[in-house]
Amino acid sequence: DAGVIQSPRHEVTEMGQEVTLRCKPISGHDYLFWYRQTMMRGLELLIYFNNNVPIDDSGMPEDRFSAKMPNASFSTLKIQPSEPRDSAVYFCASSLRVASGVHNEQFFGPGTRLTVL
Amino acid sequence: GENVEQHPSTLSVQEGDSAVIKCTYSDSASNYFPWYKQELGKRPQLIIDIRSNVGEKKDQRIAVTLNKTAKHFSLHITETQPEDSAVYFCASRGAGSYQLTFGKGTKLSVIP
Q: Would you tell me how many other CB atoms lie within 10 Å of the CB of residue B52?
């Protein structure tokens, strides 16, 4: 397996533009997580899905952020409109629930470095 | 919600010395505690984890200890090498939860 795949790896955009980040989890994993990493705030969980259903989106900072998972192999994180303070590295991670309350590790993708000018 | 505090934020050690990073958590129901290593420009990768029914776990030069009563856990790296230089994150997961709460990270520098 190629691991968690994210695209693009780097994105530079101007304030006000729409940004879409993409993630392909490891095949067979049933949980998908979106994180944002900044120097100031560290690794923050934005939202996570179980079997394509959003479970907890309390970490999504504002209505400008939205995430979807239309099928088991694809998820998107969209920012519209983007602002300079959204500049960060966005990671997608996936994991497999092996028993009640027991998971294998979360595997992270390579991340998308977003710069909003 | 869960709160994880991690100390120190930066740590410099001489090659061959030991390094210790400590974390505390707030939710007494937390039952899973992984440690991730993130090299510069790379993704976080799991290096060791411990579950609440175990007090200590070791894997070659790295070990993790857990004190449930005090709600703290620590990462120990012995015989440090330059390739151990990275940012290390601790995390915890509450019982019945599927999400991790991460500490702010410790930047470890191993000086040759």
A: 17
